[in-house]
C-alpha cells in the first residue's frame, strides 16, 4: 500500500487489523509500521519521540515482536 495515496488515519485501521485476528506475516507488519511512520511525518509534522509514543505504532511494534518467527532473546549467556 506504500505506492498509493493512503488516507490520513489509516495507521489505526492497520493496527486493529494486525491485532485482530492477528498477523502472521512479519514483513507485512514491518511495512505497515513504515507506512504509519511516513503518515505521521507527512500529515502531522511530528518528531521521532512523538512517533515512538503513538498508540497505533506501539501496537504494531508489539505485535511484530510477538508474531515473528525469531526466537525470544536468551536471558542467560553461554560461554564456550
What is the gist of this entry?
With 80 residues, the chain is mostly helical. The protein has one domain.
Characterization of this structure:
With 80 residues, this protein is mostly helical. The protein has one domain. Helix content is 64%, strand content 0%. The protein is built from four helices and no strands. Helix 1 packs antiparallel against helix 2, helix 1 packs parallel to helix 4 and helix 2 runs antiparallel to helix 4. The longest helix is centred in the middle third of the chain and has 19 residues. The radius of gyration is 15 Å and the shape is globular. The chain starts with 9 loop residues before the first helix and ends in a 13-residue tail after the last helix. The mean pLDDT is 77.
Features:
mainly alpha, 0% strand, 80 residues, globular
How does the SSE layout of this entry go?
Layout: H1 10-22, H2 26-44, H3 48-53, H4 55-67
Q: What is the count of β-strands?
A: 0
Domain count: the total is 1
Low-confidence stretches: none
Structural class: mainly alpha
Amino acid at each position: 500500500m506504500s505506492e498509493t495515496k493512503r488516507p490520513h488515519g489509516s495507521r489505526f485501521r492497520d493496527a486493529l487489523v494486525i491485532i485482530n485476528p492477528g498477523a502472521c506475516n512479519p514483513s507485512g507488519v514491518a511495512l505497515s509500521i513504515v507506512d504509519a511512520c511516513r503518515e505521521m511525518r507527512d500529515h502531522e509534522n511530528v518528531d521521532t519521540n512523538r512517533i515512538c509514543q503513538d498508540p497505533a505504532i506501539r501496537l504494531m511494534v508489539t505485535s511484530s515482536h510477538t508474531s515473528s518467527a525469531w526466537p525470544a532473546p536468551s536471558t542467560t549467556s553461554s560461554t564456550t
